[in-house]
Specification:
Length: about 400
């Protein structure tokens, strides 16, 4: 691990600063929007716009980098992010924010693609798995740290918009000044959605639903906090708890996944998520228990994402895994566009508890479909090793992680 840190510290430091900047603006907009009188549904459109841009960036960034190189793409996208972060408090209109969220989602997606390919390119076969694990841990830690910064600032002023802009600008210094070769891109042979659905109906449906959960959960968390009269510090703790839960439970779930029928694990985790959300919606909870609910929510959705990719890959050859994973990631991103919209619509209709109800509905649909699929197909005879993945990982990173998987177990 020390070798990995010595080799990859510029990227890891840059990613940490990027995630702090991204995490602050993601929570801050929900709080500031409420202060400015934006409706819940208007804020849901703003939050959803990020995932629309993110989906577009994930498709276009590799070709952009092939054409002009990673340094130019990095610099251009980073400059755009810094500019948008400063413009938010100057253009206090939800429609303008939605357009800027599309831009910033596109830019962050392109930056992730570039950073992950850079890391994959510089790591050796012996260190690639450790490097990618360190990268995903750093992402989580950056988001958690961002909530601490949010708690110390004033959302009604300019400071919390300027500081993330500065952090994003600083994030590119260690990366661009590092003496490392430019990453190369191999074309991924994509699998059609029809073929992907025939291979794993549960994987396809599950990725659509978990995309909705992930986007609704993180995109609307600060909006829920504002509607529930939480303080800024409480909102920061609530959001941070989601990432802490995801970080803590990823590996225990992975250990179970390699020793049990993954469909059973998907079924029970989705059921647990639906039950927890139903309780949170039905019973007024003290803040301490709301934090526990947030941690459980993050601890369920992050491993579910990895489980669904692993489950789909159980029915594929090694050669087909990258193309299938690219399709699954697209479905997850497509589902993410609608998560905040549905959450905002329900929260506007019935109040803050709509936040938990819509997420619980997604979980219930996934649990029901997983149970149905278990009656239609037997478990695979051999499976591949579970790999912990972040829902924000690009197809390039997922491909690299899959290359690190051990041979199928029997």
């Amino acid at each position: 691990m020390l070798k990995v840190l010595a080799q990859s510290w510029p990227l890891l430091l840059g990613v940490m600063l990027l995630m702090v900047g991204n995490g602050v603006q993601g929570s801050l907009l929900g709080i500031r929007g409420a202060l400015e009188g934006f409706s819940t549904f208007e804020l849901s459109i703003v939050m959803s716009a990020y995932f629309l841009g993110f989906l577009g960036g994930s498709r276009m960034a590799p070709e952009m980098i092939r054409r002009v190189g990673h340094v130019r793409v990095f610099s251009a996208l980073g400059s755009m992010i810094s500019a948008v972060l400063v413009l938010y408090p100057l253009m206090l209109d939800w429609q303008a924010w939605a357009v800027m969220r599309v831009l910033i989602g596109f830019c962050f997606s392109g930056i992730y693609v570039t950073a992950e390919s850079w890391l994959n390119n510089t790591a050796s076969n012996e260190t690639r798995g450790q490097a990618l694990s360190a990268y995903m841990i750093v992402q989580m830690l950056g988001i958690i740290a961002s909530q601490g910064l949010l708690a110390m600032g004033d959302p009604s002023g300019f400071g919390l918009f300027i500081i993330p802009s500065v952090l994003v600008s600083l994030a590119f210094m260690p990366i661009l000044l590092a003496d490392t070769p430019a990453p190369t891109f191999d074309t991924i042979k994509r699998m059609s959605f029809a073929q992907l659905f025939r291979t794993s109906p549960l994987g396809c449906a599950g990725m659509l639903l978990t995309g909705g959960v992930f986007a609704a959960m993180f995109g609307m968390a600060s909006v829920y906090g504002a509607m529930s009269a939480m303080t800024i510090g409480q909102i920061a703790i609530f959001v941070a708890a989601m990432y802490v839960g995801g970080l803590v439970l990823q590996y225990p779930v992975g250990w179970l996944s390699d020793r049990a029928d993954r469909r059973v694990l998907i079924l029970w985790m989705a059921t647990a998520g639906a039950v927890v959300m139903a309780v949170a919606a039905a019973v007024p909870l003290p803040f301490t228990l709301e934090v526990l609910v947030a941690a459980l929510l993050g601890g369920i959705i992050n491993p579910l994402y990895s489980l669904l990719i692993a489950h789909t890959n159980d029915y594929l050859s090694k050669e087909d895994m990258p193309g299938a994973s690219a399709g699954l990631i697209f479905l997850n991103g497509f589902g993410a566009i609608f998560g905040p919209l549905l959450a905002g619509w329900l929260m506007s209709a019935i109040g803050p508890k709509g936040y938990f109800l819509i997420i619980g509905g997604f979980f219930a649909a996934l649990a029901g479909y997983a149970g149905y699929r278990m009656t239609k197909r037997v478990a695979p005879v051999q499976t591949n090793t579970y790999a912990g993945l972040s829902p924000t990982a690009s197809a390039l990173a997922v491909d690299a992680v899959l290359q690190e998987q051990e041979e199928p177990r029997r």
